[in-house]
């Protein structure tokens, strides 16, 4: 084959690749729509690895294999850019104000989305039920303060599904006006939990504490006052938002302060069968007989599912009645999971799978 024939062959192959590229991108459009409906991020590292694994099977030539894998990686990168464009403007509900940690989590999880603030968890949740927003990002637990019971109750009585769980590592900073120095500060404003997390620091410096509804509102109030003797405890991202200066970094006493956020959507996502690090949320009540809870817990363990969380919550409509919240590892969509649900139903008059998701990801502030 001479060079002109080789080039003609390349042009013919390129025409075929162009047609296949368009087919692939149309399929990527459907993937993007699936992810929008379920509140899933564009990047799916596990799926990308599966694509590359198939490529290793399809290309037997060891000399060509690394080049084909590079080709596949580039194709997936283009596909992700296309999906990002398609998902641009997805409306993401959260409870709080701009700059709050929930707002930061929503922006980290959905960099192409539009965060939409609501005054309460219930209103953010309702915005997704009503179709005003595509997904909601709500906290379910804090390593310092414990569970967020209001959100657990929404899971219990609501119709949205949890399709992903993320951990946001919270780093508290001392924020002041642009003309302030650390020595100028006499009073610090923040949410009571943030003040408590930084109490050792505040006491060492002899600073007066003032409570605020949340850290972002505290930062906004400092910006509005313009008093360099007043500072806020909040995230560094909040400082940029309200035109403040970070006077001191990482002042919280506990370095393990983490909030777990769940993504709620109208449509349920079921991870690929056999996916690594599968997990699920299960809510149930038990029969009013001795040992009912123990029997339910034993059923979960007997089917090989490892419980990470178990707690009870009072039912709002029935005095002194409780429901139970479980987070467990494993694929509840598997045959073993279906058998477990069947066995649990003998002990649980109300049983609800509130979410299926894969490995919890960590978001850094």
Pick out its properties:
365 residues, alpha/beta, 5-stranded mixed β-sheet, 42% helix
Description:
The chain is α/β, with parallel strands linked by helices and 365 residues long. It has helices at residues 3-38, 45-58, 65-87, 101-109, 121-129, 149-157, 192-197, 199-205, 215-225, 236-242, 292-302, 335-344; strands at 91-95, 114-118, 135-142, 146-147, 161-169, 173-176, 187-190, 208-211, 230-234, 245-248, 258-265, 279-284, 306-314, 322-329, 351-357, 361-364. Strands 1, 2, 3, 4, 5, 11 and 16 form a seven-stranded mixed beta sheet that branches. Helix 4 (101-109) links the parallel strand 1 and strand 2 (114-118). Helix 2 (45-58) runs antiparallel to helix 3 (65-87). The longest helix has 36 residues, at 3-38.
């Amino acid at each position: 084959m001479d060079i002109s024939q080789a080039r003609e062959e390349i042009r013919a192959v390129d025409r075929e690749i162009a047609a296949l590229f368009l087919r692939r991108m149309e399929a990527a459009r459907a993937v993007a729509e699936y992810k929008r409906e379920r509140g899933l991020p564009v990047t799916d590292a596990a799926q990308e690895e599966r694509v590359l694994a198939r490529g290793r099977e399809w290309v037997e030539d060891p000399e060509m294999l690394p080049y084909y894998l590079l080709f596949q990686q580039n194709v997936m990168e283009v596909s992700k850019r296309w999906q990002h464009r398609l998902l641009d403007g997805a409306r993401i509900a959260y409870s709080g104000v701009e700059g709050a940690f929930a707002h930061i989590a929503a922006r980290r999880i959905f960099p192409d989305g539009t965060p939409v603030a609501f005054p309460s968890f219930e209103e953010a949740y309702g915005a997704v039920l009503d179709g005003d927003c595509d997904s909601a990002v709500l906290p379910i637990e804090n390593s310092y303060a414990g569970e967020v019971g209001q959100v657990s109750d929404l899971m219990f009585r609501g119709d949205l599904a949890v399709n992903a769980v993320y951990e946001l590592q919270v780093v508290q900073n001392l924020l002041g006006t642009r003309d302030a120095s650390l020595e100028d500060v006499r009073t610090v404003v923040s949410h009571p939990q943030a003040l408590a997390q930084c109490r050792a620091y505040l006491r060492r410096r002899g600073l007066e504490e003032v409570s605020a509804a949340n850290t972002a509102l505290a930062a906004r109030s400092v910006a509005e006052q313009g008093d360099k003797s007043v500072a806020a405890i909040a995230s560094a991202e909040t400082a940029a938002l309200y035109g403040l200066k970070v006077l001191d970094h990482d002042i919280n006493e506990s370095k393990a302060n983490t909030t777990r956020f769940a993504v709620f959507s109208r449509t349920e996502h079921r991870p690929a069968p056999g996916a690594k690090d599968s997990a699920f949320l299960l809510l149930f009540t038990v029969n009013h007989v001795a040992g009912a809870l123990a029997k339910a817990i034993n059923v979960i363990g007997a089917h090989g599912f490892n419980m990470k969380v178990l707690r009870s919550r009072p039912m709002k409509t029935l005095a002194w009645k409780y429901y139970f919240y479980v987070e467990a590892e494993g694929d509840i969509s598997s045959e073993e999971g279906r058998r477990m649900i069947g066995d649990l139903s003998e002990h649980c008059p109300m049983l609800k799978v509130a979410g299926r998701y894969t490995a919890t990801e960590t978001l850094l502030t």
